[in-house]
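Checked the freezer inventory, then went back to the computational side. Two predictions to log before the end of the day. The first one is the construct we discussed on Monday; recording sequence and tokens without edits.
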Amino acid sequence: MKKYIPVAFLLVAFWGTRSFAQVSGTASATVNLTVNAQVTVTTVRDLNFPSHVQDSTAAVVNPNSDGTEAAYFTLQTSANHSCAISYTSTPMTFTTGSIAWTPSVVGASSSSSQTSATTISSGSDVTTNGTGYYYFWVGGTTAPITNTLPAGAYQGTFDLTVTY
């Protein structure tokens, strides 16, 4: 019987210990980030209504056809990028009077497209061209200019805001 004890001991030692194989796996994910250029809006030219007589009609600047009177803005950011456009205006004031005006805004992806530029409503989106530019022209219509409005030089503001 003594012969079987060492064999039994080896069998118990062998089966009594567990052997685990180590298994592992690895997966990778690509990490992406797109950095957009800052938004730059530049006023190239101010809106200049022509001189107007006190005759109860409104002064008008057509942003598509009144080239040097219409305000002109450039937008620069990332190429082919969608941007939200909003704008506000304040009445034009003089020392003793003010006159309301309503802006008319058009835009295009080419600086030479003023005459064919499309209407841009406040709150709408535009997409920059392949080099990251978009162009705006601003005209407008004043309230009727009556003889109760004092003669003089009136001035207001127009704010164009671009976000993405």
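The second is the one RB wanted added to the comparison set:
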Amino acid sequence: MNHTQPDKAVSYVTALQALKDDDRLRSLKPRAGIDFASNDYLALASSPRMKRAVTAALEAGTPIGAGGSRLLRGNCEEHETLEADAAKFFGAETSMFFGNGYVANFAVLTTLPQRGDLLVLDSLVHASIHEGARAGRADVRENQHNEPQSVEDTIRDWRSQGGTGRVWIVAESLYSMDGDFAPLESLIAIADRHDAFLMIDEAHATGVYGEQGRGLTARYEGRENLVVIHTCGKALGAAGALVTLTRVLRDFMVNRCRPFIFSTAPSPLMAVAVSEALLILQQEPKHQQRLTDLMAFTHRRIGERGGWRASGSQILPYIVGDNARAMTLASALQARGFDIRGIRPPTVPAGTARLRISLTNNVSEDDVRALLDALAEETGDRDR
């Protein structure tokens, strides 16, 4: 008896068509135009100094690949040097180097919170945090974005329902799609009040904020109840992520963290690049200052035009709302020479499709003026 086999790809084709119908179909595009899209905030990705450091390491015999996990032969001197330097730089007891921020968030949240604990996530945290929380053993609840009282209420409600474990509060110091800042002081106070841990993702703040780019958590680093993720692939111009934490938590991660134990270690050359980036932050404050000045200039220009509230950071969301309109506007600006990308759900909440305009040292004040003029012309709002 012959049975017709269904096309194995039908379900995928159907899913892709549904995305297209909702104006949410994604595709890869090469980089082109003036950079208003990257997270290379300090323009260190093309730093001659970092290139020289990596070249010198290669010539001195540093391998390209680690050749194994950190618990096998993959634990290189370059990794340990970076972790020691990073702990000192950020003011923490110890640090751990991971291949990227996604893995770092996933690793922490699937290892440190235990069964019977509670994870309280800000509703707008990174996808990697949501994924790590879902894959972990703790109970998971969301609080309203940037609302400390919502965090407090969530914890009390969980306790009233019989929750007895440790609480973990998770937030970003600077949110990647809205460009707004977390109420860190209030979150620290809540964590202390409830004997909770606080995990902060500094992905978009490391290198940009704080003395010498130490981030928005700099004044709190070293606390026993604080774990911080410092991404290396954004303002630091390299790749990877550093987790700063206490020695006890680090030892637990080394022994129990599956993404750490069963992954080949990051390239030792990347550890060299990150180490050099940390030195640049300390020795060349001009990079951080130039971006600070560019942010101030851009915020003033937006304020003078009216009709658009700047975020206060280097991340400037221009809310459009409709998916198709957002992508049409992005395409129009790309055609005029600006690399700006449209952001649609599920990356952002439904009905809030937007342009994510990113300020970096790859652009000038003249570039900003030209972009704002082009945006006003394309939207028909000359006041913007």
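For RB: The mean pLDDT is 95. The longest strand covers residues 315-321. Let me know if you want it refolded.
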